[in-house]
Amino acid sequence: MPNMTESEVFDKFAQIVAKSLRIDASQIAPDTHLTDLGAESLDLIEITMETETQFHIFLPDKSILETAVEVFGPGILEKDGYLTEEGKRFLLRRLPGADAQAFVGEVAVKDLQSYFLKVSTWVRMIQELAQFTPAECQSCGGPMVASMGFRMKCGQCGQEITLRSGEELNREWVREYYDREYRSQAGAPVSATAVQ
Amino acid sequence: MAYDSSVTQMRMPAGCPLGPWPESVCVRLDAFPCEPSALADLILSPGEGKHWRSMPGVEKRRREWLLGRCAAKEAVRALVDLPPKEIEIVADPYGRPQVRYCGAGVHACGGSPDPRVPSVSIAHSQGTAVALAVLGTDTRVGVDLESLTHRLEDFEAIAFSPDERSLLAAMQRDLRQEWALRMWCAKEAVGKALGRGLTAGLLAFHITRVDRASGTIEVALRDGALAQCPQLRGKSLHVYTARESDFVFSAIIYRHYRNGAVRMRPSRQEILNYLLQKMGELTEDWDYPDPVRAESKLFTELGFESLDAVVLCTAIQEHYQTPMPFAELLAEIGQQQRDLSIDELADFVNTHLGGPAGTGSATRRVQ
After folding, report:
1. What is the CATH classification number for the domain harbouring A105?
2. Sign of the C-alpha dihedral, residues A85, B200, A81, A104?
3. Could you state, in order of their start, the residue ranges of all structural domains in chain B?
4. Least CB-CB distance to A45: which of B61, B158, B227?
5. 3-state secondary structure of B125
6. B35: exposed, middle or buried (C-beta count within 10 Å: 0-12, 13-18, 19+)?
7. Which stretches in chain A have pLDDT values below 50?
8. Are the C-beta atoms of residues B83 and B76 closer than 8 Å to each other?
9. Residue of A nearest to B154 (CA)
């Protein structure tokens, strides 16, 4: 579903959350944190699974900062639990819609975790990933339907595609950012992009 | 002012790989000892109280947070005698809870931080909270608690790799659900002990072995989790898990040494193996007709004299970096005029590597 608006995604996601936590969807607002609604770790897993099924996407299994640290190497984006200036610059670019004010001064890694529990963060992430899930078959234009696992199948010609994982897309984004915006100005080695 | 409650102090069963760990206390609270806001006034430091009053979210979250703090403070208090209000639990920049002392008790000792600050881990689920506190520098702890009423379809597909799922393969439905949850709890406990939670991704915490008899689950770190904690490369982390009524509980304790070594609580068998090996070294040129066995008696069979026993005891204490009351043991067997087998010595070490071992739970009155 690549063409859903933010409010359509929000409504559908709020339904998923409400059902999982057995609460009324009216309690959920964009700036609500899932844990403030009483979600425990297993609820988050349930919400993740349901979101993947309903939106036909594959959510990343680790935080974007974690993926970025793997590409950049240790100590560049985060040091002793606090974001470096480089880290703040990276996250502001990666998380459009993030409140720039929240990245002023000392920002701890744990503050970021609460950002990732916000409903609006999930909604933006879903919307972004959904762009990579085709609604129509690229060969015949028929409607795509969910198939086994993270696969989609054309309802008309039967052609199958595998969905790209959020983790893979995150990593790609980070590598591109690293090459284009970090490496040249920091004089850092090329090698980090060649990892794996 | 005092509140009235019974607190369950969980003891690790004697056979569990964690316990008895020296100076560790695990507290579980299933209910509020008094009205929540009254409890907050009684136990929270001024800073924590402010945090609790302005805490957003549903009542369940606020109550469980408070119950978790209460359990943690009770666990810390059992190790370090300070009033709960003077024990503050603050999150480090990664979110790991840390104990800090505030108030008169600390000012009385000139504001210098008490060196006996335990490591602590807290978990809560469905109205129950559990906390584990352990004394000792560089000790890491992690606990988790999940309710078995939380049944998820297809949960295994997202939480575990195919290799991990194969560990569950032969189990029947109910058993499989319990052990899948234990495996999940094991990952959570390791993430908490590392201090970063599961941010490195669930598959970075790889379960290599499940021992159903003892409840032990072994976890090896991979990828991002290993990058967060490179000292643990090649180490198998032993997580103790247990089921108690509708809950599954997990706990891990390990210690980092400055030289980079990592210690997990050795099993009795490992202790016995070490003792046999050490005896072999000490008596290398003593020309025994038979090899040293677990049943061998130190004095009559192996020809030990008291000085040899002291050498052995010193070596044991150094090896485990834990003082043990060997003098009392030697005096006791001297008085009773009996001998000591290596097997008995292993029991002694096993017991004294930690506090009192025991099964079941002890209840205690909170003042």
Report:
1. 1.10.1200.10
2. positive
3. 6-265, 268-347
4. B158
5. strand
6. exposed
7. 191-196
8. no
9. A49
CATH topology of domain B6-265: Ribosomal Protein L22; Chain A (3.90.470)
* CB neighbours of residue B200 within 10 Å: 27
Asked if A41 and B146 come within 8 Å (Cβ–Cβ), the reply is yes
Percent of chain B with pLDDT over 70: 83
How high is the pLDDT of residue A132?
A: 86
Q: What is the pTM of this model?
A: 0.79
Q: Is A108 at the interface with chain B, CB within 8 A?
A: yes
Q: Is 70 exceeded by the pLDDT of residue B45? A: yes
- The pLDDT value given to residue B363: 29
A16 Cβ under 8 Å from any chain B Cβ: no
Query: For B93-119, what is the mean pLDDT?
Result: 72
Q: What superfamily in CATH does domain B268-347 come from?
A: ACP-like (1.10.1200.10)
Tell me which residues of chain B have a C-beta less than 8 Å from any C-beta of chain A: 56-58, 60-61, 91-95, 125-126, 146, 150, 152, 154-155, 158-159, 184, 188, 196-197, 199-204, 223-224, 227
| pLDDT band with cut points at 50, 70 and 90 for residue B189 | very high
Q: Name the pLDDT band for B138 (thresholds 50, 70, 90).
A: confident
Region of poorest pLDDT, from B90-104, B246-260, B350-364: B350-364
In a domain, A149, yes or no: no
pLDDT reported for residue A83: 95
Say if A143 falls within a structural domain. no
Q: Which of A38, A42, A46 sits opposite B58 (nearest CB)?
A: A38
Res B158: pLDDT: 84
- Closest to B152 (Cβ–Cβ): which among A36, A42, A81? A42
- State the SS3 of A108-175: EHHHHHHHHCEHHHHHHHHHHHHCCCCCECCCCCCEEEECCCCEEEECCCCCEEECCCHHHHHHHHHH
ipTM, interface predicted TM-score of the complex: 0.87
Range of the domain at A70: 6-133+165-194
Dihedral angle, C-alpha B78, B363, B249, A51, nearest 10 °? -90
| Chain B hits for A167, Cβ within 8 Å | 201
